[in-house]
Design brief:
The complex is a heterotrimer of chains A (218), B (52) and C (230). Chain A is mainly α. Chain A has nine helices and no strands. The two termini of chain A are 24 Å apart. With 52 residues, chain B is an all-alpha fold. Chain B has a domain of 32 residues. Chain C has 230 residues and is mostly helical. The chains are: A mainly alpha (218), B mainly alpha (52), C mainly alpha (230). Chains in contact: A-C, B-C. Chains B and C meet through helix 1 of B and helix 1, helix 2, helix 3 and helix 6 of C.
């Protein structure tokens, strides 16, 4: 499994692997929104938690179809499915790889973007915490969506349509945590519920995704 | 027609929209049903089979 | 196919009867509400549609599970058939809700938990229907959409709670309950029941009709494939 993880990481960080694309997109969102809504600091401060979370969401979405599609096309997915490690493990490892390449960098970059969006001081800790806890869920849910659409030629848009509604609870709790934290209110509940979703996703989705992959490999 | 007062637009609009949507749903369902039945009959005649 | 062929005219007829009676009774023969005026008449469409929007998804969940466990083809096709019906019900609930909300709350839309949940439900329906259309092989499509329906149901429930957490809301609390002692008085309650029955029967009618169509479509696809290979 470690070998699989390293292989996926290597593939993603190679030239043409798409690494950095998510980060660039995240940055772009943080630039586009003020351009769209106006530069007034008070307004930006109020919407910063939501914008940062939506940006993170969309940035994660970009690289989802690469999780399985490349391996599906060249036949490696068939090999992985018949390998000694269970397919559920393969899904979990691939989701982890996706997170390491997308969610984690996003989390680390987020304070800089918080600066751009005038996020209030207390919010930064909650921003990073919520993203750290929530982006793994985005990778897992994304992996499930990718597994469903892996056999499709132009699956990208459909993938977004399927995955974005599933992202909503994570988005709500994540953004709420940052918002309440920035306001100085109790953000712990939101954070715990967020962590709960991630934990539940980690428990449930590798199985669902593996089932979908088996169906698509038939 | 009962006196709907100032709410005539809301009430009539709701009933109108609902009837429209349901009629469209029923209509499309029936149309597709007829189309499938006809197409199936054609192909079955061509192949000399009958349906279950 | 034969049982549904016999059943269909009866359910259709019964549904038409209930809907006609319920709607005419509610529209023409009930008084206006003290606070809501004549807009209370929208209840005869809004509430049944909203109930069916949820029930349709639950039916799809059950039939999806039956497909995955017992591999009854009809089950999968029934779920496929129910999708657009559920989506239409959701749309009716949202549209009548907006038309009702405008005079009552002063706004066409509000990000109230119940409305938001319904909007999210509409998106789930869209995704489900889209996946059926996107996958060519019928059995693969049946499997994938079933898994989507199950995972989607979990997230739909999660969303419901998340959205409640996110906003307290101004939509009226549940005013229908089985013991009838809640906020809807008798005068409105009885025609409402008839309308609910009508919508339920309409749902059954449409699912029966559409499933038969899906069965034929599936058979057609199989025969055409056989032709192509010969």
């Amino acid at each position: 499994m470690i070998a699989l993880l390293l292989r996926d990481l290597r593939l993603a960080t190679r030239a043409g692997g798409g690494f950095g694309l998510g980060l660039a997109f995240f940055l772009l969102v943080a630039v586009l929104v003020p351009l769209g809504v106006g530069p007034e600091p008070a307004l930006l401060a109020r919407i910063a938690p939501g914008i940062l979370w939506v940006g993170a969401l969309l940035a994660c979405l970009l690289s989802l179809d690469r999780i399985f599609a490349l391996d599906f096309e060249d036949g490696s997915l068939d090999l992985l499915a018949t390998a000694p490690i269970p397919l559920e493990g393969v899904v979990a490892v691939k989701a982890l790889a996706h997170w390491l390449v997308t969610g984690l960098p996003l989390t680390l970059l987020s304070p800089v973007l918080g600066l751009l969006l005038n996020l209030p001081g207390p919010g930064y800790v909650w921003l990073m915490l919520s993203l750290a806890l929530g982006t793994p869920a985005l990778s897992l849910i994304g992996a499930f969506g990718a597994a469903l659409t892996v056999g499709l030629k132009r699956g990208g848009l459909l993938l977004s349509l399927l995955v974005l509604p599933l992202y909503m609870p994570t988005l709500i709790y994540g953004a709420e945590a940052v918002r309440r934290g920035a306001d100085g209110q109790g953000a712990l509940t939101a954070l715990l519920l967020l962590a709960g979703i991630t934990a539940g996703a980690a428990a449930l989705l590798p199985f669902s995704a593996a089932a979908a992959i088996r169906v698509n490999l038939r | 027609m009962p006196d709907l007062g100032t709410y005539a637009f809301a009430v009539l609009g709701s009933y109108g929209a609902t009837i429209l949507l349901l009629a469209a749903l029923v209509g499309l369902s029936l149309w597709r049903g007829v189309r499938m039945r006809r197409a199936l009959r054609e192909v079955e005649a061509r192949q000399g089979t009958t349906h279950a | 196919m034969q049982t549904s062929a016999g059943l269909l005219p009866w359910v259709a007829g019964l549904s038409a009867l209930c809907l006609t009676v319920g709607v005419i009774w509610g529209f023409f023969f009930t008084p206006d509400d003290f606070r809501q005026g004549s807009t209370v008449k929208i209840i005869y469409l809004h509430v049944p549609a909203a109930m069916m929007a949820i029930n349709a998804w639950i039916m799809m969940l059950v039939t999806s599970l039956i497909w995955l466990i017992r591999r009854h083809h009809v089950s999968a096709l029934a779920a496929k058939a129910a999708g657009p019906v559920g989506l239409t019900m959701t749309a009716i609930a949202l549209i009548t809700g907006a038309l009702w909300g405008q005079p009552m709350w002063g706004t066409w839309w509000a990000w109230d938990p119940r409305l938001t949940s319904f909007l999210i439900l509409a998106l789930f329906y869209l995704g489900y229907i889209a996946l059926w259309s996107a996958v060519e092989d019928p059995d693969t499509a049946a499997d994938l959409t079933s898994v989507l329906c199950i995972v989607g149901s979990v997230f739909a429930v999660l969303s419901r709670y998340a959205v409640n957490f996110w906003n307290q809301g101004l939509h009226q609390g549940a005013s229908l309950s089985l013991d009838k002692k809640e906020n809807v008085s008798d005068v409105f309650y009885l025609p409402l029941l008839v309308c609910i029955a009508g919508f339920v029967l309409l749902f059954v009618t449409l699912v029966l009709l559409r499933t038969r169509t899906e069965i034929r479509a599936r058979r057609l696809q199989a025969l055409l494939a056989r032709e192509r290979m010969a």
